[in-house]
Amino acid sequence: MTDDSRHEALSAELYTEADIAVPKKEIHTLTPRELSEIILQIVNIEGPIHEDEIVVRVRKLWGLGRAGSRIQDAVGNATQALLSQKRCVRADGFISISGVAARPRNREGVSSSSLRKPEFLPPTEVSAAILILVEAGHGARPNELLNAVARFLGFSTTGATLRIVIEDQVDRLLA
To answer: Is residue 167 classed as helix, strand or coil in its secondary structure?
Structure first.
């Protein structure tokens, strides 16, 4: 098997955005427990997910154009409850299910533009992608590895911010 065919056979799963049924009442009228259960479902599907993206997802599930302070506070409180109950964990601003390892996901087809921002890439997911690619024998040289990780995660270009995000995780893994 050539390097090119190995690379083509190696791909990350597609990122799935949570699209779940929600109650037909306003977000801020939900009990903290009700909202926590919805957020837990979102994190279970999309975790690790940035805290800000949880607000975006909740807003979209209710078909809202924006999330005001009441919604942001309600989501923040419900997320904090999940963290306090140790049902979720927070690392670097990303929320995930306790004990579940990050898996790299390809973001090519996501509808949420923030998911395509390098700063919304969970460090644990970037590290997992690096390890998968290194173990598969791709991108032994730093520049090759940066490009391979970017493509693996669904980015067609490797801009400055994305390079920094990936390089930070390469450095962390090397340390």
So the answer is: helix
